[in-house]
Amino acid sequence: MADFKLIPATLSLRHPEAPRHPEPKAKDPLLPVILSLPVSLRLPVILRLPVILRLPVILRLPVSLRLPVILRRSRRILSSPARMILAFMLLNSAPVIAAEEKVNESTWKIESGTVTFLATGKPGFLRINGQGAKPAGQFSMDKAKTRLTAGEVKVALDSFETGLSLRDRHMKEKYLETAKFPEAVFKADGLDFAGGKIPSSTDLKGSLTLHGVTKPVTANLKIEETSGDLDITAEFEAILSDYSIVIPEYAGVTVAEKVKISTTFKARPTTP
Asked: Which residues of 185-201 are buried (b: 16+ CB within 10 A; e: fewer)?
């Protein structure tokens, strides 16, 4: 007797002309529009969206803003346990969102530059120019160069010189106390560039840590793109008493409280 084998049949319901893989869905057109808005306008726009459109936008918010939006705006729609579950899910998506944002960022490292300060006296004939210091640090922008996301510039205070060795020693030992506070650090806040491109001039808010004290400052920036690099000049003023620094006196002349600080440096991208 002949042997018979059962061969399983494959049933396909796919139309012969149907594509093998589904077409990718179009991205939400609202998201890039909202993300291109200034930070101060994004939240009011998001909160006016219908609930079904709001969730993908909330997922792109900084973690610190997600929870207030969820708890304030979903109260009439979801029960309290449901809100808590949603909040937990969104907060735990932070590592994924952060990793995606890192991929979309470029890092720029300070390659060379100088930091100087100018202190004047009372009466005004005294002018103390601090020179010789070099900046170090880096900052990040999105790859489209529409926004500064973070930045930090450090300077070693021991490297400043004013032209008089005795004055330098007094400045470092008595006033700046560089043995205890060796560095000054400027940290930049995020900044959306007007017009969606790197400006030639803008104000940048941030914080300056000096002599163990951190205070907000605003620096005026001048930026020039040269062969893929950025040439940046920044200037701002610091009030010595804000940083618990004793007002210096030299030969009976008191130094003014406001000191002008300037830095010029070249930054180069370290990530493509």
From this structure: ebbbeebbbeeeebeee
